[in-house]
Amino acid sequence: MAITLSIFSKQSGNSFHRWINYNEKFYAPKPFQLYSLTKNQNILGGEKISITIISEGSTPDSIFLSLTPTQISTSERDSATITLKTKRDVNGFYQFLLPELFQDYEYKAIVNAEYFYEAWKSVTSTPDTIFVTDRPKFEEFEILIIPPSYSKLPSETLDGSIASVQALKGSEMKINLLSNRMLKSSFIKHNDSIKYLRTFENTAVGSFYLYSDGQFSIYVVDPRGITNRDPIEYKINILSDLKPTIKIKNPDRLITLGNNQIIQFHLEIEDDYGLNSLQLAYEIRRPEYLNVEPYIAMFIIPELNQDTTEQTINAKNLPLDICTPKYMPVEYIANITNPINITKIPIPLSTAPPVASLISLKK
User: Fold this and answer.
1) In angstroms, rounded to a whole number, what is the distance separating the alpha carbons of residues 148 and 78?
2) 248-293 pLDDT per residue, tens
3) Quick check: 320 and 261 in contact, CB under 8 A?
4) Could you give the count of Cα atoms lying within 13 Å of 256 in the half-sphere of its Cβ?
5) Alpha-carbon distance 80 to 22, whole Å?
6) 3-state DSSP call for residue 18?
7) What are the tens digits of pLDDT across the range 161-193?
8) Domains within the chain, CATH numbers bracketed
């Protein structure tokens, strides 16, 4: 009896309220209510979250979720309203997995009346908001590849859309970027090492040299400690640089020194990119009975032309201090180099003294 009186009292109260407020518009009662269990959320730009909706009253088979951007965006994707649909799961919940979001959205669940003659048109949940914290990102990004000077190759400028960098070994790679936010720091993760860039306001610059294949990524950090999302992993492919070649035209393996003890050299040298230096090293091994350590010397041949990849060298060695009574082995090593590769050519020689020694005269 008490329950009946309570229901009758509530219905009478509602009726009396409508009767005394006859100018107010009253809507037909709805069969259920929608509520968001997720409520307001804070995420980082580009993250994905799930929204959970429940129904109180009757349970519709499926519902819609409408997400409306709360800010004006120049991006068509971020300025459009997103509408998703899902069915009730076995637990009676309505789960929505949202796409990547890059700005704030207001969302609400919606169920529209199935038939036009139904007294209610739609049921909606109270709007909630997803607040998206903007990540730093590249507004401008440039890679400058500077090949070694000996190669005479031109510099190459690449933009951020190139995921693979090809360069001659020893090339310098310069990074220049502009961020959408003020930066606290920035760095390059190159293979297993980290190199920090010079950062000023929202710009960063830096460079490093390329000597081997690998990969690198670039990170920027704003004052909040938030980094750019999913940095691109750039591949490094080192172009092969063959070793220089040397052909020894002169001297022969057995030579006779003149009074000035000068040895003539005739070399033909070649490289695929360019040459940097030409050195000549020699070792004089005196007879064992003298009990003297070998004499070793090295000097640069200045006749090398660094502006060509193929040339012939005619050079003279420095005078040798060879005053021994026997034929004596002299080993020369001709070093032709670019800054990356070195070619060493041993030239074993036997030199005959220009005059007879006292020992040989006695014999």
Assistant:
1) 45
2) 777 776 666 666 666 777 777 777 777 777 777 777 777 777 787 7
3) yes
4) 3
5) 41
6) helix
7) 778 888 888 899 999 999 988 999 999 998 888
8) 30-133 (2.60.40.10), 138-239 (2.60.40.10), 245-362 (2.60.40.2550)
